[in-house]
Design brief:
homodimer; 349 residues; alpha/beta; Quinone Oxidoreductase, Chain A, domain 1; Rossmann fold; 6-stranded parallel sheet
Chain lengths: 349, 349
């Protein structure tokens, strides 16, 4: 039986303040244990803090794990969710389904081992072990507690054939290859060939998956852009890109020229590096009527919009959406099928 | 004869600091009077400040025009361009071509009356009259000074059949109808009909042009969303939207429900209101596999990206690009052909 207020699939019934906002924008969520009819409660085993959030906390406390742990605990207690107030970001979690409301549309069953694919920034969460098993020095937070999934949340069952950490790392960025797949398949350029795809940050997690997705979807050529020679070697060894070039993505002319030298401009440019200031270079590296996909959370909307205008660049610019139906399956398939992806991921665990 | 450093068509030769960035990202531009061979110098008659920028300045100084004027002067003097350091936005300008470099590809002649269609945020600018003719209380800033256009800038000759203020106001937002036109024409939904298009801020400048563009491009239906009854009456009188609804765009459920009640969800939602916090509502107002076009400079990239993910919404999100070939001509044509657009614009001058 549900509590009195009707549930909304997006979770607004759990917003305590301010009134009327979505759970992600809320200062405080109602993290009560009792579920509404369309909700699911998950027993949490591990939190995976967003990299930007963990870095901010760690730097603020000068690497003092005890203080980092205390602050995370305080955030979760006071907000009813894990959302870093400075970076605004959260992360994801792994757990086991504990209770499923009779009207839940998620298709989960009690006992399923799942990862949430919606951000912790909007997930009601209660930590019950005071994070006693975490030293505060890694993004991976073993814990015991519970979290709530709404009617319109997304959770993926964790595969049995892959280590949990590996699955988690893939699921965390699975929106990127899914959108690249769609953009490459819907490309209609001259010569009835696929697009030339450049991935900025090609040796990273979302970057390597994007390169693999682009090739499988029929890219005419793939270019991986990396910041230095060490990553260039790694990416070359992986075999995921037809060409690998070294450039500072924050230097627009350098990025443009590097992509051009590797067979560009790109018909599709995918930005996967989490540093600010890559908008202009991405636009300049892209062909007339081409597409830029921004997956970096460091992207500035106004820098992208005004940048393209200022460069008189007729490019389509997409905000990377972390969700697409089937995105988890596609990313896990790429990991299984492409040894180059797997080796790059395993290096980063 | 050009100064020693070679000109780059995107203007990097005028960047003073930091080194290596594009003019838009620069803290300071070289606004020297002397032009490089591919540049054009324009005698400035009027600046048209970006709405978000003007509002921020006006609110900061509590409507004190003298202080607003002093801050604009200070920005232009210290940065060599008019870029609001808080909003990051600029605006555009009107002037008369004063000198054309021998290698300029812009096709302009001395004496042409032009408006720049690239942002002031990247345009070297010198104010020579201390803004003496401006009271600091309007976005329209009459002035005397000069500005520099690069090889890859865009400027439109002002039409003779329209008042200058009207042309300017239209050219300032001409990217919006151009992108809406393209998105509507390329829509491939079920039933071989056009998309249902909702324009949030439909009674505004970019909003009214977007509504007109959507209908001319073959929208199946158009919905104008406005914040209160007075704008609703204006928009209804204009005849530009099939349906007009009142909703606070910052309230996601209210926006979703209002668009739904008017025949939505929308296949294409266009966000034209310059207030923060409209991302979630725009996503929720949009149909599965639909498209959201963000034209508001108040859009937050992370709010859009994480918001769509958090709502498990499979929507394509576009960063509104202010440039597209033919955008000025399309917008001016809409103004001439649609009395409703013209009347809404004239009310705002």
């Amino acid at each position: 039986m549900s509590p009195p207020q009707a549930a909304d699939p997006v979770g607004t019934h759990r917003v305590l303040e301010p009134a009327g906002v979505l759970p992600q924008q809320a200062l405080r969520l109602d993290a009560r244990r009792e579920i509404w009819d369309d909700e699911v409660r998950v027993r949490v085993r591990r939190l995976n803090l967003d990299a930007a959030s963990f870095r901010q906390l760690s730097e603020k406390h000068r690497g003092d794990g005890g203080q980092v742990r205390a602050e995370v605990l305080d955030i979760v207690r006071s907000r009813g969710k894990m959302q870093n107030p400075v970076t605004g970001s959260g992360g994801m979690l792994v757990g086991v389904v504990e209770e499923v409301g009779p009207d839940s549309p998620l298709g989960l069953a009690v006992g399923d081992r799942v990862a949430t694919l919606v951000s912790l920034t909007l997930t009601p969460l209660v930590v019950e072990d005071a994070l006693a098993g975490w030293d505060g020095r890694s993004e991976q937070v073993p814990t015991d507690g519970y979290a709530i999934l709404f009617g319109r949340s997304i959770a993926a069952r964790l595969p049995d054939d892959l280590p949990e950490e590996l699955s988690l790392a893939v699921l965390d960025v699975c929106g990127a290859p899914a959108l690249v797949d769609r953009v490459v398949r819907s490309y209609t350029g001259p010569d009835h060939r696929g697009p030339v795809v450049a991935v900025v940050g090609g040796a990273g997690k979302s970057g390597s998956l994007s390169l693999a997705a682009a090739r499988q979807a029929g890219a005419y050529g793939t270019i991986g852009v990396v910041p230095h020679d060490r990553e260039a070697s790694l990416l070359r060894e992986s075999g995921l890109a037809d060409d690998v070039v070294v450039a500072d993505a924050r230097d627009p002319l350098a990025l443009r020229d590097a992509v051009r030298a590797a067979g560009g401009p790109a018909d599709v440019t995918v930005v996967c590096v989490d540093v600010p200031g890559c908008e202009g270079g991405a636009v300049l590296a892209t062909a007339d009527r081409g597409t830029v996909v921004f997956f970096s959370m460091a992207t500035s909307f106004s820098a992208a919009a005004l940048g393209a205008e200022g460069l008189a660049a007729d490019v389509t610019m997409l905000v990377g959406n972390g969700y697409m139906p089937g995105h988890a399956d596609l990313a896990l398939r790429l990991l299984r099928e492409e040894p180059g992806v797997r080796s790059l991921f395993e290096r980063r665990l």
